[in-house]
Please model this.
Amino acid sequence: MTTRSLTQIIESIATADGAGVKLRRSLGSQRGVHVDPFLMLDEFYSDDADDYLAGFPAHPHRGFETVTYMLDGHMRHEDHMGNRGDLGPGDVQWMTAARGIIHSEMPQQSEGRMRGFQLWLNLPSQEKMKPAAYRDIAAREIPVVKLAGGGEVKVIAGAPLLEGVSTAGPVNGGGAQLSTDPLYLDVRLPAGAVFSAPIIAGHNAFLYLYEGSATVGPEGVAKPLPHRAAGVLSDGDDVRVQADASGVRFLVLAAKPLREPVVQYGPFVMNTREEIEQAVADFRSGRLASAA
Ligand code: FE
Model:
């Protein structure tokens, strides 16, 4: 058994997206800064409505999946297919844009805290032009595993072995598997507690620490994971995180790498320039999301 260690820190950068939503971007903050197949990770967190009220008015996506996980606040999404949903605290929207989707993501509050994450997960070339689909996952559908040493783990995707039991998340927990085989955990540890879980060897993995502080890696040689930064892990069989005196909250993301060329132009992520040009042309002519 090899415990994974920190190999790279991707600091988050303050930026704005949509119609002016302030956020912190780690993966995706610069060209080529990603952890295959994860393309981007945004954390939005503000108590000031001016930072989020403008939301994300209608915009397209093609070629990948977006995963929105709310911690606080309400966001309503609507798409060109007539789907709509309201994401509240603890809810997840797992949207497979694939061939194309045009949607809006708008805050449903004018005061209070808005906090959550949006992750972009790439699709393999042969799935980039399949029909769009999405799932709204209510907080109650997400299993919470209590850790013997204190703390808890929410299993959003994957079926990790936790406390000796395999716990299936609502996405990729069994049955139909996404080909990137993602693992998505939200972990909370009290002061001094240790979290350890297997991660499939050969899968790329990173952590994102959003509250408190912790060290990561094998006992004795663990390294600190900076606040609001993505910590990329070496290959290995498991991950080990120990909370500092403040306790810690962090995300664990892992998936099978695609090892394919990534050509991105804004909300379109394809394998070649020609496919990007096609996406732009399809969007301009109103055919982005229509059947082939
Ligand atoms: Fe979007």
User: Anything to note?
Assistant: Helices lie at 273-284.
